[in-house]
Amino acid sequence: MSGGQGPTISGLLQEVRSRFAEADLDDPATEARILVGGLLRLSATGLVTRGSERVSEDDAATVRAAIARRLNHEPVHRILGEREFYGLSLRLSPATLEPRPDTEILVDTMLPHIRRLESKIGNIHMLDIGTGTGAICLALLHESPQATGVGSDISSEALETARGNAERNGLAERFMTAHGSWFDAIHECFHVIVSNPPYIASNVISTLAPEVKDFDPPAALDGGLDGLDAYRAIAKDAARFLHPDGMIGVEIGYDQRETVTSIFEGAGFSLVEAVRDYGQNDRVLVFEFQH
């Protein structure tokens, strides 16, 4: 960021904040800080301590163009092109869901199970179905330095994004990808299978906030007529791809605990753990196969 004849950093931040406030965004101050900090490559602290410095006209123009994108409902992290997830910096692409903090709960929930399996088995091999940015698998690999993982997705663009994210976080050696739907491209067994699958009922998608329905890829949202298609597909075949002591962890919609549990129970699994998110909604279910 070069100095120049543009506004000061704090002036620009104030401008963004007031435009966001006028547009009734939920948290204009935080969004302004993330956007301006991200575009100018400054930490929250840097925004304050360097507030009196001027930015170049070019940088000011970049920030103002981003304001227009945000007011058109494009999420801040999509504009920046990246988002932090579980301490990893991940690039986003139009073919990937933007990783949300609630999904970190799936990582938190699976880690103790992975530790237990590691102490019993040694090196763990895991599969992330519908990997998108690679967020879940890469976070688990980062926390488990001996583990290896496969991310599968129906989108080759998503897999390209995931491979890039593995590379930029030093995990490429332990992360492979598979291109296909559910288990179509999978030919090996795993100790852990995880997924944050599409779980929104088709007819609900049009009612979602424009930030979601206009910018998240439809294939990552649409779970079929009742929102449960993905869980049926995973439960139906998962046992064939799980080692005997293996576990499955899935993210679910707030009202899906009972239906998803019964789908997995119908396929021979039993519920080991159910975890709620920060809003106290059911969010993660963990299953094991009943041999």
What does this 3D model show about the protein?
This protein has 291 residues and is α/β, with parallel strands linked by helices. It has two domains: 9-72; 85-289, Vaccinia Virus protein VP39 (Rossmann fold). The chain contains eleven helices and nine strands. β1 and β2 (88-91) form a beta hairpin. The chain is elongated. The mean pLDDT is 91.
Number of helices: 11
By CATH's scheme, which homologous superfamily of the largest domain applies? Answer: Vaccinia Virus protein VP39
* Gyration radius from CA atoms, angstroms: 21 Å
Helices and strands: which structural class? alpha/beta
- Major sheet: arrangement of strands: 5-4-3-6-7-9-8
The level 1 CATH classification of the largest domain is: Alpha Beta
As a percent range, the share of strand residues is: 15-25%
> Topology as H/E string?
HHHHHEEHEHEHEEHHEHEE
CATH topology of the largest domain: Rossmann fold
- What is the CATH-assigned architecture of the largest domain? 3-Layer(aba) Sandwich
Low-pLDDT windows of residues: none
Mean of pLDDT = 91
Question: Termini, distance in Å?
Answer: 60 Å
Question: What's this model, at a glance?
Answer:
The chain is of the alpha/beta class and 291 residues long.
Helix-strand layout with pairing:
Layout: H1 9-22, H2 28-40, H3 44-49, H4 57-71, H5 76-80, E1 82-85, E2 88-91, H6 101-121, E3 125-129, H7 135-143, E4 148-153, H8 156-168, E5 175-179, E6 190-195, H9 210-213, H10 229-238, E7 242-251, H11 257-266, E8 269-276, E9 282-289
Parallel strand pairs: 3-4, 3-6, 4-5, 6-7
Antiparallel strand pairs: 1-2, 7-9, 8-9
Helix pairs in contact: 1-2, 1-4, 2-4, 6-7, 10-11
